[in-house]
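Colleagues,

For the teaching module next term, I've prepared a clean inverse folding example: a structure given as C-alpha cells, and then the sequence designed for it. I'd like students to try predicting residues themselves before seeing the answer, so please don't circulate the second half yet.
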C-alpha cells in the first residue's frame, strides 16, 4: 500500500540489512532539498511506529535536512507499506541493486534470512542470483563472534583474516587468535589449527579420510581455502601406527629378516643400497593368458588398430600379468631388509636392501621425539649461530678457509663432505621466521650486503686492495662464515660434514643459548607424542602421565612452561649426537 507519512513517524528499522554507515549522505540531502524525494521509502508497521527497511540512505538524508532545519518533523514522506516478513528480503534486494554493500551487511542479512526466514543457502542463492558457494561462505562468516563482526564491519579486520577466523566456531578462540595474531590470515589460521592436520597431508592421505571419520574423527572444512583440517591429530597418529603395524606383520610373515615401518622416511634410507627382485618364469596358466593376449594384439596390429583403446587395454592386461613375475625369493628375504614408510604423497613407499652388505659411513642415530623435518630446522638454526660466531672471529675464519682448501687440494676430499663449502656457495636455510622470534639470528648474506655495500662490482679488486687489514679480515670472516653448513637435511645422514661443523663450533666457543632459545612456535610444531616424550625425559614419567589427556595445544604450552631456562632440544645441542658412554658395569649406554 502506498501512502504519505510524517517524517516524525518514521524510524530506521533494525531489519535494514545495511548496518555499515553508507557514504554520500550530505550530497544526497542536498539533492533531496533541491529536487524533492522522488522515490518512496519502504516501511512496515510495528508497535505503533513505521520502520524504514528500504531507503535507509534517503531516510538518513531527510534526518540530516531536519537537523539543518531545511525541513520540519511534519515533512510528508511518500512510503510503500509492506508486511514485516517481506522486509529483510526486500531490503537486501534494494541494497544489492544500489551502492555496493559492505560484506558485513550481506553476512547479517543472509544469516537473518536463514535463521528467521527459514531459507537455505540454496534458496538464498537462487533468490538473489548468487552462487550457493558464495552464500555458504558469507553464512560461515556469520559464525564469527559478535565483537569480531563489528570489527569486520568497521574494516578493522580484513576479509582474508575474517575468513581465517572461521576455522574455529569457538568465539573465545576466535577473539584470542585475533588479539594474538592481528590482521594476519596465515598467523590466524596457524593459531587455530595447531592441534589439527591438513587433510591433504601425507598422513591423512595414507590413512584415508573415510577411515579417519569412520573411527570417530571430525574434519573442519575450510570453505575459503583449498583444504580442510582433521581435528583429532592423536587419533590420526593412532590410525597411522595401526596401519603400519599391519604392514609390518604382513612383511614379517613373508619371511623378511628385518622389517621396519615409519611415518616418514628414515634419515639413512638412501644409503642402504638396493635389493632387486628376481624374474621368475610364467606358469602354465599365465603362459596361456599371455599367448591369448598376444594373439589379440597381433590381430589388431594387422588391422591397423594398434593405437586403439582396445589395444591399450590388452597391453595393460599383459603388463599386469608380467609385473607379477618380479618377485623376491625366499633366500633374498631371509637375508634382506624391507622398510615401509609413508611417502610424500601419502602412498606406501618401500625400500629393500641386503642386510649383510656394509652400509656407507654416514651414520644415523636415534632421533628421539624429533621428526626429520624438525631436526633439519634445529640444525639449521645451529648453523646460523655458528656462522655468526665465525663471522666475528676473523682469525678462526682464516683457519677454516685454510683447513677446507687443504682438505680439497692436498688430501683430495670432496667439498660436500666438508662443513665449509669453499666453492664458494652461500648456505641457505629453511627455517620459518616465527621459529626465530626472539633470537638475534638472521641470514648472513643480508648482513654482508649491508656491511660491505661500498665494495663495487666493477673495480672490486682495486677497492679490496685499498682496504685496511681489519676490514679485510672482517670481510674474510663473513664470507667464510656464509659457506658454513652443519645442517642435517630431511632424510639425510650424519657424516663428516656435521662432524667438521662440530669441530668449528667448539673452536668458536658456540653456545647456541646466546643466540636462540626454543619459543612456543617450536613446541606448537611438535606432535603430542613428541611433547610427552620430552616431558618424560625432562620432568619424569609421572609428569608425562599426568598430562597425557591434555589437548595438544595446551600440552605444548605446558611443556614450554615446565622446561628449565636454557633448555635446548637435543638436535640443536650438537651437529652430531654425543658418543656412547661406558656405564659402571663396563657396558655402553646411549646418550640421547
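(Answer key — instructors only)
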Amino acid at each position: 500500500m502506498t501512502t504519505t507519512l510524517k517524517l516524525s513517524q518514521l524510524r530506521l528499522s533494525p531489519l535494514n540489512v545495511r548496518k555499515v554507515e553508507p557514504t554520500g549522505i550530505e550530497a544526497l540531502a542536498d539533492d533531496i532539498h533541491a529536487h524533492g524525494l522522488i522515490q518512496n521509502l519502504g516501511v512496515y508497521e510495528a508497535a505503533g511506529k513505521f520502520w524504514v527497511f528500504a531507503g535507509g540512505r534517503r531516510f538518513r538524508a531527510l534526518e540530516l535536512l531536519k537537523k539543518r532545519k531545511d525541513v520540519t518533523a511534519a515533512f510528508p514522506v511518500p512510503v510503500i507499506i509492506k508486511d514485516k516478513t517481506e522486509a529483510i528480503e526486500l531490503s537486501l534486494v534494494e541494497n544489492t541493486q544500489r551502492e555496493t554493500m559492505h560484506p558485513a551487511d550481506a553476512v547479517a542479512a543472509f544469516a537473518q534470512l536463514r535463521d528467521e526466514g527459514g531459507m537455505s543457502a540454496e534458496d538464498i542463492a537462487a533468490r538473489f542470483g548468487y552462487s550457493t558457494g558464495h552464500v555458504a561462505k558469507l553464512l560461515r562468516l556469520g559464525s564469527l563472534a559478535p565483537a569480531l563482526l563489528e570489527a569486520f564491519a568497521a574494516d578493522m579486520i580484513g576479509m582474508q583474516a575474517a575468513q581465517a577466523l572461521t576455522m574455529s566456531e569457538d568465539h573465545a578462540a576466535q577473539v584470542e587468535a585475533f588479539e594474538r595474531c592481528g590482521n594476519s590470515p596465515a598467523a590466524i589460521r596457524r593459531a587455530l589449527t595447531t592441534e589439527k592436520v591438513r587433510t591433504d597431508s601425507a598422513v591423512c592421505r595414507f590413512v584415508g579420510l573415510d577411515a579417519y571419520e569412520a573411527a570417530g574423527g571430525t574434519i573442519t572444512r575450510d570453505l575459503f581455502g583449498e583444504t580442510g583440517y582433521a581435528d583429532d591429530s592423536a587419533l590420526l597418529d593412532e590410525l597411522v601406527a595401526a596401519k603400519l603395524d599391519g604392514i609390518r606383520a604382513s612383511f614379517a610373515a613373508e619371511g623378511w629378516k628385518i622389517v621396519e615401518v615409519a611415518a616418514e622416511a628414515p634419515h639413512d634410507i638412501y644409503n642402504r643400497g638396493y635389493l632387486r627382485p628376481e624374474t621368475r618364469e610364467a606358469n602354465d596358466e599365465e603362459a596361456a593368458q599371455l599367448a591369448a593376449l598376444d594373439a589379440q594384439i597381433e590381430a589388431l596390429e594387422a588391422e591397423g588398430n594398434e593405437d586403439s583403446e582396445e589395444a591399450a587395454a590388452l597391453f595393460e592386461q599383459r603388463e599386469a600379468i608380467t609385473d607379477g613375475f618380479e618377485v623376491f625369493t625366499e633366500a633374498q628375504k631371509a637375508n634382506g631388509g624391507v622398510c615401509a614408510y609413508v611417502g610424500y604423497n601419502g602412498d606406501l613407499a618401500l625400500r629393500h636392501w641386503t642386510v649383510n652388505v656394509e652400509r656407507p659411513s654416514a651414520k644415523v642415530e636415534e632421533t628421539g621425539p624429533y621428526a626429520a623435518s624438525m631436526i633439519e630446522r634445529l640444525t639449521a638454526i645451529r648453523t646460523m649461530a655458528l656462522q655468526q660466531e665465525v663471522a666475528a672471529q676473523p682469525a678462526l675464519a682464516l683457519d677454516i678457509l685454510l683447513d677446507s682448501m687443504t682438505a680439497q687440494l692436498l688430501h683430495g676430499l670432496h667439498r660436500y663432505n666438508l662443513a665449509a663449502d669453499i666453492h664458494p656457495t652461500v648456505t641457505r636455510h629453511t627455517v620459518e621466521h616465527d621459529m626465530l622470534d626472539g633470537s638475534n639470528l638472521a641470514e648472513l648474506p643480508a648482513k654482508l650486503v649491508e656491511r660491505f655495500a661500498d665494495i663495487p662490482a666493477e673495480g672490486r679488486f682495486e677497492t679490496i686492495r685499498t682496504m685496511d687489514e681489519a676490514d679485510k679480515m672482517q670481510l674474510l670472516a663473513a664470507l667464510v662464515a656464509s659457506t658454513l653448513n652443519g645442517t642435517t637435511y630431511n632424510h639425510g645422514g650424519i657424516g663428516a660434514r656435521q662432524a667438521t661443523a662440530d669441530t668449528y663450533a667448539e673452536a668458536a666457543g658456540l653456545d647456541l643459548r646466546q643466540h636462540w632459545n626454543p619459543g612456543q612456535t617450536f613446541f606448537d610444531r611438535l606432535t603430542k607424542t613428541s611433547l610427552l616424550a620430552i616431558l618424560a625425559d625432562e620432568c619424569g614419567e609421572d609428569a608425562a602421565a599426568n598430562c597425557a589427556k591434555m589437548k595438544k595445544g595446551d600440552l605444548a604450552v605446558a611443556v614450554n612452561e615446565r622446561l628449565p631456562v636454557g633448555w635446548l632440544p637435543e638436535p640443536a645441542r650438537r651437529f652430531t649426537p654425543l658418543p656412547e658412554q661406558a656405564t659402571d658395569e663396563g657396558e655402553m649406554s646411549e646418550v640421547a
